[in-house]
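Lecture 7, part B: from sequences to assemblies.

Below are the input chains for today's worked example.
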Amino acid sequence: MRWLFSFLVLALLGAVQALSSSGSRLLVVLEELAEKDKYSEFWDDLRGRSYTLSFESPKNDKLSIFKHGERAYDHLILFPPKTKGLGPSLTPKLLLEFLKKDGNVLLTLSADHPTPSAIVSLLLELDIHLPTDRNALVIDHFNYDTVSAGEKHDVLLVPAPKALRADVKNYFEVDGTIAVPRAVGQGLGNTTPHLAPILRAGSSAYSYNPKDEAEIVEDPFAVGEQLSLVSAMQARNSARFTVVGSVEMLQNEWFDAKIGAVGSKEQTTTANRAFAAKVSEWTFKETGVLKVGRLQHYLNEGKKNVNESAVGVPEHNPGIYRIKTDVSYTIEISEYTSTHLSPFVPPTADDVQLEFSMLSPFHRLSLTPLAQTANSTIFGTSFVLPDQHGIFNFRVNYKRPFLTSVDEKRQVTVRHFAHDEWPRSWNISAAWVWIGGIWVTVAGWIAFVALWLYSEGVEKGVKKTQ
Amino acid sequence: MPPKNRHPTSASVQPSAPKSTPSAPTTTSSKPLNANTAQDIVQNVWDKYVQRTPQRVKLLDTFMAFLVAVGALQFVYCVIVGNFPFNAFLSGFSATVGQFVLTASLRIQTNPENKAEFESISNERAFADFIFGSLLLHFFCVNFIN
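Predicted structure of the full complex, as structure tokens:
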């Protein structure tokens, strides 16, 4: 009986375990299910990472991404519909609701059919802009594939993306060149910190409608690196939304297609398969997921401290501190990568920072990595509390592109000196004069009282003799 | 001089008042009241004070002068050197000021010349009040200076 039970537990564990940190239920919305064979290698990759794939057509009336008010799936892959939209069960409102409930979405676009306005408005809501010309695609006359698009120049060859900035981690590093056939370029709004381009077009690319007969492109939608071919949006709740400009790059034929760059005779294989894996890993939260472990703050003063407990170890996370005391703060941060938690190492140009704030920060300090455990880095710092009493927060607010947000707040009270915590008067040499003043007064008073009593006695004696 | 006029009355009410009764007649005869120079006036006042003031009042006056000196010294030091730590200055200075006020009260209450006004308060009672108030003051000052 027992071994049966343990088998059951093991089986359940196997069913639950997924590489994604947020679940394994994946819904693929595909208009023509016959088309799914074109992407079989992509599906195999996903199944190999233990996702349970469900394929649905948007035309299916029973399709719903919610069940009993909760998400029915953890992740969503949307294929470009050939008709006007994705139907009543996948309206922009419902998709945003899905994001709000921590679901992740991978949206693909295609230049073969005009993008439906429902998707355009959904993207607009996320500040991702598509060309106003719905048939436009991205063309590059210098970095095209000579094998398949020698004439049309609409299959772009893009080198693997580098880190966005020196202080941003790169989760999309692949070996080789990525082929992007017939892509819809996206323009990213520059007011939101939630957007980041994953793959940008080359500097000579531009957006253009091939059905347009004009010789010269006037006023293109966007040019060069403004055009994002694959872009990422990470919401405040860390739900991820990725837009892939070209659905064709996920097809089997492009996963191992031979391509030839302009000016070189030799043909190479695309890195699309690895890139697609990287993009889906990131979108479905297999990479770039941060987790906060133990968080501590404590008084860092030798024997003198007030909050010390009986065992001689300073009390951890006390609710109250005194002004001008030395305080230490440590936070344990792990990064989830595909199968396990590993120590989080911030990019070289970046720091995890601690704010000690009451309305506005009184301290903003970079945390230094103090130690590493098997699967986490312990960051920490020590500082002297400001000379200001009140309600303060220890806050680590770490929000970076491609990383899930960390916002840890711990509220503490900072009190002023207690009556018996001030230095004694004799420890301050400047006070000695006035200490002397008091005691001279007291001594004079005692002498006076003695003399007074003495003189009174004399008078009484005099009175008696009289 | 009003004290001189008032003095015999107080002496008649309380014949046991010490020393003031014999000194009263001597002051009137020792020197002429009209003085020409400022020095004469001061000398005159001083002589009269020495002759006519009871010994306990003189003791009180000495103590008060002592307190004024100590207080002034502390204040001058504070002005010259600075007031850090301020609570120490406050308690040191207020010890002298408070003691001065208490002593002044004792002087008013026990002065034989004010006998009529403080009929109900005996010298012993006034002195006990003084002791109590002084101890309280000293306790406060020592506590405040920390």
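Note for the exam: Chain B has a mean pLDDT of 80. Keep this in mind when comparing with the next example.
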